[in-house]
Amino acid sequence: MADQTGYPDHADGGRRPQRAVPDYDLPDALTLEEPQQYRALFEDTRQAIITLLSERAATVSELAQVLDRPKGTVGHHVQVLASAGLVHVVRTEKVRALEAKYWGRTARVFYYQTLEAGTAQRLLERSAAEVGRVEASGQGEKIVMDVNRRDVRVPAERAREFRDRLADLLLEFADEPRAGDTTYAMVFGIFPSSLDVLPERAGEGS
């Protein structure tokens, strides 16, 4: 599995110029191996920081402003990510008498094998809350939005195939050039359903 991120963009003649993301060099991928890295990455504020740094390098002050969180709190989260090897200082700039540190990711994509218990549930709950806010705002018909679900009884191997195809689509979505005024989220999930199975009809399966 992979934490989706931004890849280099390509201009395509849209209304707004599209810029390469992020605006610093970094390796394509990093495989998470240490528990510390999992704990660092899969926390809401740190996930938001990692996502923002997919766009460009940023200072703690810039991140705090976008996240509407105290600078000290955001600085703490950045240090946790740095200690786990997920972000680092990619450049510095002199601002009057101070030196501003610009933080960036250590890889475009973070690959991982397993999730701690409850991580997937928290991701879906957070996504559901965002969908609920859009619905409550009455803006759902004015923007691109769709949520749907199907429950289908299939062999595990076919479920794995669909999971892999969905993961590829998510990475393709992350690879899109940055443009427009709205950030969209794509969420996919495949999991055992609680829907009961119809019993076989008389005479079948014998």
- What structural class is derived from the secondary structure elements? alpha+beta
The first-level CATH class name: Mainly Alpha
Integer count of domains = 1
Helix content range: 25-40%
Average pLDDT level:
83
Features:
single chain, 206 residues, alpha+beta, Arc Repressor Mutant, subunit A, three-stranded mixed sheet, two-stranded antiparallel sheet, 6 helices, 12% strand
Plain-language structure description:
The chain is of the alpha+beta class. The chain has one domain (2-174): Orthogonal Bundle (Arc Repressor Mutant, subunit A), CATH 1.10.10.10. The protein is 36% helix and 12% strand. It has helices spanning 35-41, 44-52, 60-67, 71-83, 119-137, 156-174, and strands spanning 2-3, 29-31, 87-95, 98-105, 109-111. The radius of gyration is 20 Å and the shape is elongated. InterPro entries: ArsR-like_HTH (IPR011991), HTH_ArsR_DNA-bd_dom (IPR001845), WH-like_DNA-bd_sf (IPR036388), WH_DNA-bd_sf (IPR036390).
Q: How would you briefly describe this protein structure?
A:
The protein is an alpha+beta fold and 206 residues long.
Show the helix and strand layout.
Blueprint: E1 2-3, E2 29-31, H1 35-41, H2 44-52, H3 60-67, H4 71-83, E3 87-95, E4 98-105, E5 109-111, H5 119-137, H6 156-174
Parallel strand pairs: 2-5
Antiparallel strand pairs: 1-5, 3-4
Helix pairs in contact: 3-4
